[in-house]
Design goal:
With 128 residues, the protein is mainly α. The protein has one domain. It is built from 3 helices and 2 strands. It has helices spanning 2-24, 43-99, 102-122, and strands spanning 29-34, 37-42. It has a two-stranded antiparallel ribbon. Strand 1 (29-34) and strand 2 (37-42) form a beta hairpin. It is elongated, with a radius of gyration of 31 Å. The relative contact order is 0.06.
């Protein structure tokens, strides 16, 4: 584990050093001519803009994907909560049955059954 961390730190250090060396030795520029305008800026600035643009697009797309998955995530959380409640109701029913309280056991099991049915019915979503 330590060797892997040392390897990654050394790799990142080498990337940083090579980037700084490349940027300091690069005196090129980019010239964009679109009459009547003329843009001129350094090549290093263009590289920085490209990296920042890539990162901006990447994280915007990840955020959009997160927003698209949010309803399904909420649904699965609700289903998990219902299953957890039904399990607790079943355990409560079994405890009541072991104690000899048949009425409480029956109501707890009915409640658990209803919760499990709600989860099962939520999977049967009609799609157009």
């Amino acid at each position: 584990m330590i060797k892997r961390k040392v390897f990654w730190w050394l790799l990142m250090f080498l990337v940083l050093v090579s980037t700084v060396w490349f940027a300091s030795n690069n005196e090129g520029y980019v010239l964009i001519i679109r009459p009547p305008y003329r843009l001129q800026f350094s090549f290093n600035f263009l590289l920085i803009l490209m990296v920042l643009g890539f990162l901006a697009i990447h994280y915007c797309l990840r955020f959009i994907l997160f927003l698209r998955r949010l309803p399904a995530y909420k649904r699965s959380k609700q289903e998990a909560q219902r299953l957890k409640e039904s399990s607790a109701a079943l355990v409560e029913g079994l405890e009541a049955l072991a104690e000899g309280d048949f009425e409480s056991a029956e109501t707890a099991v009915k409640h658990a059954h209803d919760l499990i049915q709600n989860v099962a019915n939520s999977h049967k979503v009609k799609r157009p």
